[in-house]
Design a protein that fits this description.
Blueprint: H1 28-37, E1 38-42, H2 50-63, H3 67-86, H4 95-108, H5 113-121, H6 124-144, H7 146-149, H8 158-166, H9 175-185, E2 189-193, E3 202-206, E4 214-218, E5 223-228
Parallel strand pairs: 2-4
Antiparallel strand pairs: 1-5, 2-3, 4-5
Helix pairs in contact: 2-5, 3-4, 3-6, 4-6, 6-8, 6-9
């Protein structure tokens, strides 16, 4: 498990050395490899929502200083409202959360961007509302592409899986949901996994062959945010 305390009340921590999350001796070689690739880590609270919270925070952090990219992401989020409606999700259940995401993006377009992003994602109501929207968007993508995903979920039906495992807060994210969210927003992620008996880290780029916008650390069903080292 992860060691090292997160500051009280924080959902996404300040940046720390990567060794803060891998302190066991059995992970020494993996920690050394990780420190060679990444300069820092942000710990994310392990409340079952860590993937969605880490995903949105990391993506916004990666485009903070790119006004065009922020505007493009805002337009993409606006367009997803029709996507949710087409999956049968009532607008009354997502409009508030959609507005929250848009407000977060708009605030990130102002000054003190990193400080603002951290503050917003550590406000429980705001942060959880962002997570809820991403969960609903993931559910919508799965249901709109049912033929592609129905054979990969362990549930009586895809709709049952979406309601119980995806839309519900506090439920851990599996590979099916990760793939659905990356497809829905056309965002590529790099997941670095510590799990397994090998001495080396395992790297997953989703979707394969694309250029990742963010780097996440996965260890025992938990996600943290990795900060890459700048190119030499």
């Amino acid at each position: 498990m992860f060691l090292g305390k997160m500051e009280a009340g924080w959902l996404v921590s300040n940046t720390e050395d990567v060794s803060a999350v891998l302190r066991q001796k059995r992970h020494a070689s993996k920690c050394q490899e990780l420190r060679g690739l990444f300069s820092s880590v942000r710990k994310v609270r392990g409340d079952g929502n860590c993937f969605y919270r880490a995903f949105c925070f990391a993506y916004l952090e990666s485009i903070l200083r790119n006004t065009k990219a922020l505007h493009g992401f805002k337009e993409k989020i606006i367009s997803t409202s029709e996507y949710l409606s087409s999956a049968g999700i009532d607008q009354s259940s997502f409009q508030l959360h959609l507005n929250t995401v848009l407000n977060v993006i708009e605030h990130c377009e102002g000054s003190n961007q990193e400080e603002t992003l951290c503050k917003l994602f550590n406000d429980q109501v705001t942060s959880d509302s962002v997570v809820q929207y991403l969960r609903l968007l993931t559910s919508a993508h799965l249901q709109n592409h049912a033929d592609d995903f129905c054979n990969f979920v362990e549930a009586p039906s895809l709709q049952a899986y979406c309601h119980k495992e995806v839309e519900a807060m506090g439920m851990q994210c599996d590979h099916v949901a990760i793939l659905a969210l990356t497809q829905a927003l056309d965002i590529c992620i790099h997941v670095v996994s510590v799990d397994g008996e090998d001495e080396q880290l395992v790297h997953h780029v989703i979707p394969c062959g694309s250029e990742p916008s963010m780097h996440l650390l996965h260890h025992i069903s938990h996600f943290s945010i990795l900060g890459p080292r700048p190119p030499p």
